[in-house]
Fold this sequence. Notes:
The structure holds 2 protein chains of 2 kinds. By secondary structure, chain A is of the alpha/beta class. Chain A has 10 helices and 10 strands.
Amino acid sequence: MTASEIKLEVKDYSLYYGSFKALDTVNVQIPAKQVTAIIGPSGCGKSTFLRTFNRMNDLIPVVRTEGNVMMEGNNIFSMDVVDLRRRIGMVFQRPNPFPKSIYDNVAYGPRMNGLCDKARLNEIVERSLRGAVLWDEVKDDLGKSGLALSGGQQQRLCIARALAVEPDVILMDEPASALDPIATLHIEELIRTLKKDYTIVIVTHNMQQAARVSDYTAFFYTDESRTGILVEFDKTKKIFTNPEDKRTEDYITGRFG
Amino acid sequence: MNATGEIAVRKTQEQVKANLQKRHLIEKVAFGVLWLNAGAVILVLFFVIFYLLIQGGKFFVGEENLLEEAVLVESNEEVRDEVATTPYAIGYLSFGYLDGATKTIKLNGVEPTISNVESDAYPVVRTLYLLTPAKPEGEVKVLLDYIQSISGQEIVVEQGYVPLKTTEVFDSAAAVNFTGVVTVSGSTTVQPLMEKFAEIFAVEHPDLAFIIEGSESTAGIKAAGQAKIDIGMSSRDIKDHEIRRYEDMQVFPIAYDGIAIVAHPDIPLDTLSVNQVRDIFTGNITNWAEVGGPDGDIVVISRDTASGTWDGFEKWILSKNLLISKGFETGNFRLVFQNVWASVKFVWRFLVSKPLPGMGGLGGISTTITTTIYLVFWTLLIATPLGVGAAIYLVEYAGEMGGQSGEEVRAPSWWWYVVIAGAVLLFIILVVGGLLGKLGLVVGGGIIFALFAFLLIGVLYGEGVPRWWVIVILGVVVLGVGRFLPSVCMVSDVAGVVFVLAGGLHFAGLLHPMVNIVGPNVVPVVRFAVETLAGVPSIIFGLFGFALFVTAMHLQLSMISGALAGACLILPTIIRTTEEALLTVPLSYREGSLALGATKWQTNWQVVLPAALPGIVTGVILGVGRIVSETAVFYVTLGGSIHPPSSLFALGEQGRTMVLHLYSLMMDANAPDPAMGTAIVLIVTIIFINLGINYFSSRLSRRLSGKA
Lengths: 257, 708
């Protein structure tokens, strides 16, 4: 990969919860406008790693980090965190629309960033909802509460909400784990469309999903001390057909259960 | 399986079975006990509400309000003189005072005479009583025997009263020559009769002296009950609570008395109907022309409610429930409707008219309602932002939902709090000064405010905490301002001392350990303090408010003192409920908002607070309930005037909430009936507040959860 193709670069990154080391010396380069999947068993630090990129881990007082994370050559830890989070959007495991109308949910981010122009907001809301393939279902009822939607629709609303602030990167933390298979399918289709414009990093438990949607895959695993390590990072095709590491192969083939 | 094993299994099964039966039995007993418990509690609560409603209802149906403009006088004699000398006057008098100085008006065409009373044609009659502190002995017993005998009753008739039906013959032979002093006090209706008896008695007992004072029936009953006098006089029936309170008191009926309607001698009318009299005394008729007399405004002369004559008059002329039951008895539903309607009008008048000064609890409660609403408004205005703000800090910044938002905010030093609090305080002083029209306050406050603002800007945009000598110099300047402008000296002294101390501490290098003084470690301590305060008896807040606001801050008894003390009282409640509400807002809302590039404050304001609103509203409502029902705090900070304070900053202008009025009616005016009426208004108010809150809060949470 050339430098222009690299969106996020993690260098010798370790993370501690108090004295417990949760991630050990991770080095990885996330390519731009591609879908990168993070897979691995429970408790291996996948979500923690994902939350590093938009510094959500800062919310936990006991977290301490070492190493650097660069976005387009800038260290994210010295960036303004509010601006960083605008540029790196996030979709959570459980849909978490605000108790507001659909319109206000999507317009929330732009408004918080100081946009008040009504026409411009309308445009952004429509574009974001279209981007999240939700527009046709809700266009007649934008005043309805976001909580009144079905689970799958709520998750797409959250994606639309993230798109509305025009981020470069979208982080997804098991976005389909709380949804039924049909809603999951919708979300996966959406992820494939979104990668044209966005760099996407997705954490998933579901290996078929990772195989279906991602271009690159990172496999995390824990050693005996429950510290998460990055075992292997490569093109998805390679990881799923011809992994280099024995542990990756065991995990992919289900030998770990 | 061997035999022993089988036996063991069977035994276990039997045990399980027996145990099951036992558990079922306990289940039944527990349910029964809880059912009885809940049933009893619910019954008691309903009984309380119904009892109060019925008592209050009795007041509204039973009592009639004298019109506000009535001239209140203290004795029958004064009524007679006032009516005789005031043109267009009307009043009511005991039969014993009908001496031709006033014009006697027939009631429904029936002349108020003894014979008409005896034949039941004239209805306005009451019994006259003498009372002794205990079973009478000696001269008092002989005197009472004499009064209740045939010869005594002849005197009653001579004096113009209606005699008892008696066959007792007084045996004067039993009497010895008494000596000493007999003290008598009470009703002015009974007074002339008593004086006559004393005069006659003195002939046979020249060494016996009588001291007779006329006041009111209520006072006479009280004095006799407390054994302060030998004989009490009453021209009304003794009330239940008086009989219960004065257990040893003995009651002797001595005569009947009619109450006659009298007018100024120039009034040409001969007769009035009961309804007309009622309308005149309640203010529905204000001109003699309306009842066929001359054109002139009627002047109503009345006794106050401690008087027995008022009692009798009110009971027979003004009482609606009597007329309602009479209407039902005779099938006169027009009468029933009229009086029910009059009750409704009475409730309305009770709500919209002012309380009257003095004993008896006459008048309505309008000003107390205004004061209550006013007080609630100001108290909430002070307490809600402070309480909600404190809770947000405790939960969102220092407590559970705290942590770093990740923003590049330096941990705020306690400097921030001093500076921000100072600026807010001075801003308030500026506003207060402006409202009070005190130029000195505005100028002085303005200067200090400018200094604070300067410092605040320095802290916000400069390099953190200013140098220690800057702070000390500012403190000295602030202190100096106070020397030249005495009206701000109290505030500037406090601010100046804080500044100088802070600068000194800073210099001594002690400031650094104090940075972020209200951090996570302090939250449990703050919570404990808040909980303790929530459990402190309210009178302690009253004492605190009195010492700080009323005395030290020279706010005197005023609305602002009451509102500040009330705010202290409800702050713990509001803080606790707001904290609970904030904690129920899911963390995912906060994460969702922060992940979109919203700041911590935007997240709190736009997402967390709206989601917590139903809970916060509940806390505020609880606060309203406490203010409405609080007596102790406001008794010592708001005072007890029946007039409402003219403004928030009308220092020294006292006020009276509904509850304080109720207290005053019970304890000072000894008027339990209007107190019951006030209690009903209070209960209904609280019921409506609760209904309103439930509606508002459920609508809010429905909207937030997307159901509407």
